[in-house]
Specification:
Elements: E1 6-14, E2 17-25, E3 31-40, E4 47-55, H1 59-76, H2 84-91, H3 95-99
Antiparallel strand pairs: 1-2, 2-3, 3-4
Length: 100
């Protein structure tokens, strides 16, 4: 078993975000995937980290649904001008509060 149960890890750095794909092993020897997104906050040296865990027994169905989402984006995704919601979200505001 690797450090903190990690047996394999890879990462993707894009702009100000880093994605980590960590295969880990629990104490029973079961493998699972931990996907983490990390991005800097407004406070220097601090990062916002969000993660999901996909267990081995769910992997097939997870990949199937994930692929459906990718296929939808490929078919319907077009570059549009960013909405006011996404612009406020990028600036750290809450679109719901800003529209009230």
């Amino acid at each position: 078993m690797g450090e903190r149960g990690e047996v394999f890890s890879t990462k993707l750095v894009k702009d100000d975000r880093t994605y980590f794909f960590n295969v880990k092993e629990n104490i029973y020897g079961d493998l699972f995937l931990n996907v983490v997104e990390s991005r800097p906050t407004d406070t220097e040296g601090r990062f916002l980290r969000q993660s999901i865990i996909v267990y081995q027994e769910d992997m097939g169905e997870f990949i199937k649904e994930f692929q459906k989402s990718i296929d939808y984006i490929k078919m319907h995704g077009t570059r549009k001008e960013r909405s006011s919601f996404s612009m406020r979200r990028q600036r750290g505001g809450d679109a719901r509060k800003d529209s009230e």
